[in-house]
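ok so i was messing around last nite and threw this chain in just to see what happens. nothing serious, just curious
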Amino acid sequence: SSDVCSSDLLVFRLINEISKNRFPWVFLILISIGLEACGIYFQYYLRFDPCVYCIYERVFILGFFFSGLIGALIPNLAVVRFLALCLSLASSIAGIITAGYYLKQLKNGKG
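result:
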């Protein structure tokens, strides 16, 4: 039991230390810009109209962009890091739920 608690604390410490640097936040911004650019490329250059779920996913990717922007501004301030991490976690959870709904639609032949 104590091994589980110490490993959990280790993960939180690691997240805390990583989030104090500006690089991971800037990297998150760059990744989100790249993903949005891919979506725009598929939509406007390859003429693949996005489904509703794809548009939702793009909104959640914007959540990552703003999370990176918030975190990159003042990464040494704990309140700012906490806000950025919460936004990132919310975007992740919403994206996973949306992807699950889309996969369920595909499984039922409605996708």
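not much to say yet. The helical segments are 2-19, 23-45, 52-73, 78-107.
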